Amino acid sequence: MKNVFILTGAGISAESGLKTFRDADGLWENFKVDDVASIEGFEKNPKLVHEFYNHLRVQMDKAMPNKAHIAISEFQKKNPDITVNVVTQNVDLLHEKAGTKNVLHMHGRIDETVCLNCGHVVKTLGNTQFDGVCEKCGAKNFLKPNIVFFGEMPMFMDEISDMLKHCDLFVAVGTSGVVYPAAGFVSQAKYYGAQTYLFNLEYTENNYYFDHQVMGKASETLPQFLEKLMF
Ligand code: OAD
Ligand code: ZN
Fold first, then answer.
1. What distance in angstroms lies between residue 32's CA and the mean position of ligand 2's atoms?
2. CB 139 within 8 Å of CB 114
3. Could you report the per-residue pLDDT of 170-210, keeping only the tens digit for each?
C-alpha cells in the first residue's frame, strides 16, 4: 500500500471550535445557503456575502488544529515513502497550521480573494469588500472570496481524479457526503480498487461504498487508526 487519499470535511474542524454546515447549530442555521453560498446569492447581495466570510475569517484565524489534523500531518511526515494526498472541502487552514503539505482546497480558501473579471487571485489578510479594485486588471465591483459556491465548479478536479485512480486507501473524515462531486469520490476510489474508510460522528446516508465506518470524534478515532496503519 503506497498511496493514501484523505478527504476531509467540516467535521474534522468541529473540535477546533469551527461550526459544521449541516449539524444542529451549524453555520447555516442562521443563514440561507442560497444567500451566502451560491453564485446567485452573490450576484444579488455581494455585500452580505463579503460580511459573512469576513466574520468567518476572524473565527478561522483564531482556530487551532486538533488531534485529527495533527495525526494526518504526522502520518505524512513519518511515511515519506508513501504518497499521502490530502483533499479538503474546508476553507479553513487547519491542515496547513498542523504542518500538512500539499493540501488541495477543492472548495477554495478563506485567505484568498478572486477577481471575477480576470481570474486574478490575491492573498486576503483582513476584511474584503466587493467594491475593492483588482490590483491586476483595475476592475471595480468584481472581487469575491475565493470560495466555491453552489453554481461554480470545484477546484483541482483533474488532479483529484488522477489521485483517486491511484490510491490504495481512501479515508473520508467528518463529511456528511451530500455535496457532490466530493461525495462521489469514495465510489471512484473503490471502483479503482481502494479500501475505503469513513470516520464520522454518526452514520451518513451516503455510505454504500465505504468498506469500514468508524463512528466517533475524529480527534479520537483518526489518530488511533493512522498510528496503527502498517504498510
Ligand atoms: P457537513 O456539515 O455537511 O457535515 C459534517 C459532518 O461531520 C457530519 O456528518 C457530522 O456528523 C460530522 N462531524 C461533526 N463533528 C465531528 C467530529 N468531531 N468528528 C467526526 N465527524 C464529525 O460538512 P461537509 O460535509 O464538509 O462547501 O460539507 C460539504 C460542503 O458543504 C462544504 O465544503 C461547504 C458546503 O457546501 C463550501 O463551503 C463551498
Ligand atoms: Zn481583475
1. 29
2. no
3. 999 999 999 999 999 999 999 999 999 999 998 877 688 99
Determine if ligand 1 sits within 6 Å of the CB of residue 22. Answer: yes
Asked if residues 102 and 86 have their Cβ atoms less than 8 Å apart, the reply is: yes
Separation of 62 CA from ligand 2 center, angstroms? Answer: 29
Instruction: Check: pTM over 0.90? Answer yes or no.
Output: yes
Cα–Cα dist 160/54, whole Å: 29
- At 158, the amino acid letter reads D
Among the options 107, 120, 166, 212, which is catalytic? 107
Distance between CA atoms of residues 16 and 30, nearest Å:
20
Q: What is the mean pLDDT of residues 147-172?
A: 97
Torsion on CA atoms 141, 181, 101, 226, rounded to nearest 10: 150
Q: Which atom of ligand 1 is nearest to the CA of 27?
A: 2
